Amino acid sequence: MPEFTPPQVQLAGVAPEITLLVSALILLIVDTLIGERPNRWFLPVMATAGLVLAGAFAASTWGDNELQLSGAIALDGFASFVKISLAVFGLLTVWVGRDYLVRDALEDSEFYALVLLAVAGMMLMAAAADLIIMFLALETFSIALYVLVAFKSGSLTSQESAMKYFLLGAFSSAFFLLGIALTYGAVGSTALYGGRDPVSEPGIASFLSTSPTANTGLLVLATGFLIIGLGFKIAAVPFHAWTPDAYQGAPSPITGFMAAGTKFAAFAAILRLFDATLFSLRAEWRPLVIAIAVATMIIGSVLAVVQDDIKRLLAYSSIAHAGFILTAVIAANDRGVSGALFYLATYGLAVLGAFAVVSVVSGQDEARVRLAGYKGLFFDHPALAVALTLFLLSLAGVPVTAGFFGKLVVFGAAVQASYSWVVAIGVITSAIAAFFYLKIMVRMYLEESEGESSPLPIGRLAAGVIAITAVATIGFGVVPGPLLRAAEDATMFFQPAPETGQAPLGG
Amino acid sequence: MNDLPFLDLTLFLPLVGALVMVLIPKRWEALLRLAALVVTTATFVASLGVLASFESGTPGFQQVTELSWIPEWGIGYITGVDGVSLWMIMLTTFLMPLCILTSWTIKTQVKPYFILLLTLETGMLGVFSSLDMFLFYVFWEAVLVPMYFLIGMWGHGRRVYAAMKFFLFTLAGSLFMLLSILYLYFASQGSAAAPTFDYRSLVGTPLALEVQILLFLGFFASFAVKVPLVPLHTWLPDAHTEAPTAGSVMLAAVLLKMGAYGLIRFGIAFFPDAARLLAPAIIALAIVGILYGALIAIVQHDVKRLVAYSSVAHLGFVVLGLFVGTIQGMSGGILQMLNHGLSTGALFLLVGALYDRRHTREISEFGGLARSVPVLAGIFLIVVLSSLGLPGLNGFAGEFLVLLATYQSYGWWVIPATFGIVLAAIYLLWAYQRVFHGAVSIEANRNLEDFRMREYVMFVPLVALIVAIGVYPKPFLERIEPSAKQIVRQLNDASVIPETRGLAEAP
Fold it and tell me: N or C: which end of chain A has fewer CB within 10 A?
């Protein structure tokens, strides 16, 4: 008779997520207790406190390397890096959101609570070492975001885009679930890693490493479905159809949050799943991911050219960026993982900054989102225009911005893995992408503003966020070393076997 | 003499000046102008330090500064100067104060204008002094942004179109260069050494011929746009014509040289076999450019556009010299880079002076100006004669060397190239005749103000240099020749090294 040993519950791995859930609940309760007030300053303060605490918890586990909660949660540098970044994204979103909500008289405790919940789900996504946990995380942040997209309760576009986002999102979740079911069928478990003994503690990694000759057909099929589910969240073609609508309809701070956070969380899952767990199956999934990446880069940048709504334009640009980051996934090497992390962190900052500017410029009820509304912005509001220019240059990948270095490391990883031809496509699409970023700049600098220049009330918080992201975008462009080092430390969970011989597809 | 790092001082003085100028309130326009003049003059003085410490007779890099920047990726801050870059640096620092002086007539948005000009100077100087490929690429692209704004915001007529075209042509070219740089970077990874961006280590990286050709074309895409070689020249007439005077001067005198410089420094040095193999094709393009540029220049009715097309022809001579494969050709080509910078820079300044007086550039609007502005006309004549290669002025030495070298290596190919000089005499003298001679047909031309003090200050040193190089080119050539010799040796002696890597295995 085996002795009964009470299971050891270690919570360090999910401390940030728990913190966020608790803060969200406290926030809702406090708001109910205090009741209606003209200035509910305590809401953003509490949200800030929760996010800072969660980030601190994530930072405190930096350097740990273990699995917790029966192998369902990974506690490693990778997760810490993603969680800290997400906490920062959450903070910036809350601050910009506060000014936005006050201006449009939409402020409600639900907004902050939902942002916290979404960040919690995204964090869990990065730490999930079990497909079921990954699915739970995915649904947690998705459902929070469905509501946030619809947060402009008076706006029909907002409602419509939330509905589209929800329906397509639910559809993709079903694919993801099917992938999980097939994985279970193939492996006998949904755990990514599994224990040392593949029989009593099965897992995908241990299945692949101990039975290399085993029939992996079912697992490959499952991989395909998992790609669909995650491809939807990163807005990869052909699962991108929701992106422009959802980005357009959502309140601008939330759009920025979706672009930065959702992408990061979903890519974290992709990197862990494909570049680590399924690394030995790379010959099978690479062709599929390459096809998706190429299509994403091309469709994203080409369709962005014809947009005349800045939020839709940035939506297509975010699709193109998903394609660029996928080149690092294809590379499936250390440089690829650290490059993708660097890219996602700096892309997130730039896109949050850009949407902070958009939410300021768009004015009451987001009336001014057409590109024509940006005419002569430099002459009326030079600081806003210069900041937006900086973000756009970073998105376009012009030195000395962080976006350039991100592109360099991501493309470099793919060149190292002998996928220069994919990078060649990335390079061509980057040039196309530069065109539509320039289009915005032309409006701001080279054209006169139409009619009267209305004064733009710029909230202190929004101004702060724009300043922070602008400084970070330049700072990480000039001195990318520290962030890159952190991203390289964060690849420590990943131990891909050295590339042997020729890469599966050749150069 | 080597106590001060003159090169780095020269490099960063303008940028520091630009940052300081950000703090000056924008209504203090006189102070802003003065500050820009002081900074650029100080930069010129600092560059005289570079010239004074330069040891002629040695081919290698001098005054090298080496600092670690992003060690994770083998990126360093490495600068140095040799015979190829020395005169380009001097040309840039010499022309910049003149550009500031000619910009005294800029009345709108004075502050951003001068800040952008100073930023541009640091970018251009960085291109010529970087010995790290990453650093080089950063500066290369950094030139793009200020120039885009200079053309777009202070240009004439179709400025937006011209700025956009300039940006996109150049960016598309340079992204291919980035891909080549990345490939080279990983190819440089030896058995022991980590990959590096250090130029000096990258020279001599063994590459299979087909890889060399592909990578050479990647670099060539970028440089051929910049030079520009026909048929990639179409951005040039628009950009040069619509830019403000200072922008045109910098475009013609320095930015075009960046392309030629890149061909020498990177195209030939990294991929000598590919360069040798493709030389006939490039020479053919160069000769086509010489004739095409000259023929189109003849039929122009806009003085500025005429000068712009003359650049296409002149740069053809430069490229011709670089690729004929003899020391004379190389030295002549490099000297011609300097000469074209001075002559065409001066021509654009003079056209700007005309424009300031008459607010038109149409040749038919002028006529008989020699009577109303005799000094301007005299200076214009000297510069025209120097541009068409009259013996005794600077243009002669360079073009003569190039043609001599072409005859030695390519025989009868020299005949069409020589026609270029005849055509230059036609379009320049004919235009001169129509502008300055004949009867005064338009009343506005009768009472024009001749040179002011500011203009004397600009043109006296320019003309002095033009005459000096023409009469006594030895001090210039003897600093160029050792480096030219070394590059020609690389071009001619290198052969496909047995230990090569194919496309598939590398990097």
Answer: N
